[in-house]
Amino acid sequence: MNKHTSAKAQTLFRTERDDQNILFISTIEKQLPKKINIVDYLTQFVDVLNTAINQDTVIGIIYTCPIPAGEIGYKQLLEQISADPVMKKKIETVVLTASHWNDSKKPIVSILDHNCIGIALATMLWADCRIAIPNLTLGFPESKFGLFTGFGTTIHLPPLIGDANTLDLMTQGKLVGSQEAYDMGLLNKLTTFAEDCLSVAKAWIIQHPEVPSFSPLTTHELTDDDVFSIQKRARGLYPGTNAVIALLKDRLSLTLEESVEQETTLYCDLMEAPGPLNMIRTLHYGVREAQSNQRIKRLENYTLNKIGILGAGMMGSGIAYEAARAGIKVVLKDVNLAQAEQGKAYAFQLCEKLLKLGYMDTAQQEQLLSHILPSEKAKDLEASDCIIEAVFEDFQLKADVTKQSIPYLSEKGFFASNTTSLPITALAKAANDPKDFIGMHFFSPVDRMPLVEIICGEKTEQITLEKAITLALRLNKIPIVVRDGPGFFTSRIFFNYLLEGITMVLEGIPASSIEEEAIAAGFAVGPLAVLDEISLELMLHVYDQLPNLHASQKRAYNYLKTLISLGRKGKKAGAGFYDYDTSNKKKTIWRNPTIKVLKDTQSPTFIRKRLLHVMALDSYRCLAEGVLNQPIDGDIGSILGVGFAPHTGGVFGHIDLTTLPLFVQDCQTFQSFGEQWELPESLIQLAEENFHFYDGFISKWK
To answer: Of 201, 286, 339, 623, which is the most exposed, with the fewest CB atoms less than 10 Å away?
Structure first.
């Protein structure tokens, strides 16, 4: 090829023309520059390709992804959009120009030779044909943060894969591989080897000397069923999902210019909205920070060759599976071999699911299962680098198994208790040396729940914390570190969620309204359904473990006892706050005839606020008391641990969205409903100062 480099973009893009007058455009940079203005960057790319199109002798154009390997920073993009008053116009110009390339009828091919997600993938849709190598990761993950991928995606993707597939791919945050993308029509060709892409692209251009003009009418219209299926999960709470639905619905009635303007307007508006910013801060940057060395130290040279797990129930078995998947040898101990083997069978079941989905082969399954040794013998724990106790939530039982197993730790090993709420400092008294004792609260089901809440007791040493963090990261979990106390952080605020649900039932608010509004507020599950799932007896047991109960908790405790006496113990008993029909596996809310229903039904906003505010208020108490170190830990823990409304960005994001003065005002109006609404004086003072927990991405908590 003869090299001709565009003078205007000579530091960014390389152009080469072959003997057949096919032009190849590639990036000079191997990695995306950190300070790059992505819109200006793409403007230069579009200019380079425009210049090529306008050359009469050029018969076709091939380009690789104009965005080289690397991540487009959301912070950076948001700042650029906010700072540049003409950014919207710039994006419109880029998209509209690329959308008119087809007018020339010259064939344009894009080559995907590295993972392309978000804006990077959007730019590949500008071509007439897409050729990719195998085993790439492709998709539009922005929906996880309340955003959507703009840059013409809602215009160029539907003609390729249809409106329903476009809606699904753009709103579910899922990533697909090369083969799946090819099967759905996102890709036109797959090559076996990367070096074949260019020759295949040239052959396609020779075979298609002219391409048909782009038409936005060559697709199926979005149906109400398509929208309902997505919104049933999103509940209308994710702005990016709402935007994609609106764009796809309107697209068929708009001109190309109108579609580009509408998409860009929504895109820029969402990039500056507070809700998505909170989600990005928590679920992107916060999570990444928790998994790196930025705030929490991990031991780089610390090896974990063997761990022991006490208790082969669902939690212990789940932890064993995750450890085995990470390549760690596991001794899964229970009171008898049969129960221990049943725990290993759980790992087998998880592997079988992955086999059916094609995410694991039989060799990988055999290797994983070979790492798990079921046992009833304490001596098999010998030389464990860590022992994790995961038995029933009973103080004496945990103390007993701790004493029995601690002698088998390796010289530098540590002991961890997987507990929901029992104080680590008290549990550590059963250990020989409390400095090597720590809490590791996993969440069920362990293989799907990413969070681990690590709890430091009063005597836990820093090195033990670092070992626990290292283990959590080895298991591919997201750790947050909290200080000891009843319920720690996640369970403590979750108990308040459940308490508020029971409290409202006792007030005469219909149970169905409570459950419906919990879901509408963004919670994963309503409080009454949760109580049935865990069983009312277990909730009583949790209350029994707490050092003391205030009046609201006592009322809830007594009501749970009443329901249990009626045989309404929860889902497994077939009756609780719900009635369960075993024949059709459906459940219906139960109305207690002894509780008088309020004549004036409370507004949905009232119920939602109480459920959201009660968790956020106790989160502030945790922060003020030092149970939490920073608001971001509370935001991560609340969403990933106990299903707090993700669209808020977490408990402190929710307070900031509400504004602290209004939040305090709301809580003051709720104080007649119980002690859970008592306000710390420090929070009232912060409200008077109109304090915000964050300034954009920066914490203001000191």
So the answer is: 339
Q: What six digits make up the tokens of 263? A: 């998409």
pLDDT digits (tens, 9 = 90+) for 73-97: 888 888 888 888 899 999 999 999 9
Residue 481 carries which side chain, given as an amino acid letter?
V
Cα distance between residue 151 and residue 340, in whole Å: 54
- End-to-end, the C-alpha distance of the chain in Å comes to 60
Separation of alpha carbons 94 and 254, rounded Å: 19
- Determine how many CB atoms are found less than 10 A away from the CB of residue 522: 22
Crossing angle between the packed helical segments 604-625 and 511-521, to the nearest 10 degrees: 60
Residue 385 φ/ψ, nearest 5 degrees: -75, -20
Structure tokens at 302: 């610390």
Pairing relation of β-strands 578-581 and 586-589?
antiparallel
| 478-483 vs 451-456, strand pairing mode | parallel
Place of tokens 């809440």: 453
Strand, helix or coil for residue 82: helix
Structure token pair of residue 188: 């036109």
Residue 224: CB partners within 8 Å, gap ≥ 6? none
Tokens 């396609």 correspond to what residue? 204
Predicted TM-score (pTM) of the model is 0.91
Measured distance CA(110)–CA(45) in Å, rounded:
13
| C-alpha span between 595 and 667 (Å, rounded) | 25
Q: What are phi and psi of 333, to 5 degrees?
A: -105, 140
Paired sense of beta strands 2-3 and 13-17, if any: antiparallel
pLDDT of amino acid 290:
92
Distance CA 280, CA 650 (A): 11
The answer to whether 276 and 147 have CB atoms below 8 angstroms apart is yes
Rounded to a whole number of angstroms, the CA Rg of the chain reads 28
Spatial contact of 26 and 20, defined as CB atoms under 8 Å apart: no
Q: Which is it for strands 694-695 and 306-310: parallel, antiparallel or unpaired?
A: unpaired
How far, in Å, CA of 15 to CA of 10, rounded?
A: 9
The C-alpha atoms of residue 310 and residue 314 are separated, in whole angstroms, by 12
Q: What is the mean pLDDT of the chain?
A: 92
Residues 535, 529 contacting (CB under 8 angstroms): no
pLDDT tens, residue by residue, 592-621: 999 998 877 778 899 999 999 999 999 999
Give the whole-angstrom CA distance, residue 527 versus residue 510: 13
Q: Which residues contact 641 (CB under 8 A, 6 or more apart)?
A: 443, 449, 451, 453, 490, 494
> Rounded to 5 degrees, what angle do the CA atoms 110, 71, 196 make?
30
